[in-house]
Amino acid sequence: MLFVIPTAGEVPIIQAMLALGMGVGPAGALLMTLPPISVPSLAMLTRSFAPRVLALVVISVVGFGVVAGLLAIALGF
């Protein structure tokens, strides 16, 4: 059974970035994209999936993160 490993290490980093003036859109995009494409998650998935599939997953997650960040900015968050 496959699980995404939530590292939770990104939460304090993003909180600090928000305190320094980072926008909510980019912060939300980071929260969405960092756990699925973290090194532990990819290392675990390497045993189960071909490199081509993992590359597709990484590209998809990054793409959806960019779209989500741009959407949050467009909606005024």
Automatic annotation (TrEMBL):
The similarity comment for this entry is:
Belongs to the UPF0718 family.
Q: GO CC: one term? A: plasma membrane
Q: Which residues cross the membrane?
A: 12-32, 53-75
According to the entry, what is the taxonomic lineage of the organism?
A: Bacteria, Pseudomonadati, Pseudomonadota, Betaproteobacteria, Burkholderiales
Going by the entry's taxonomy, the superkingdom of the source organism is recorded as: Bacteria
Put simply, this protein is called: Permease
Per its UniProt record, what InterPro entries does this chain match? DUF318
Q: Which UniProt keywords apply?
A: Cell membrane, Membrane, Transmembrane, Transmembrane helix
Instruction: Note the topology in the membrane.
Output: Multi-pass membrane protein
Localization recorded for this chain is: Cell membrane
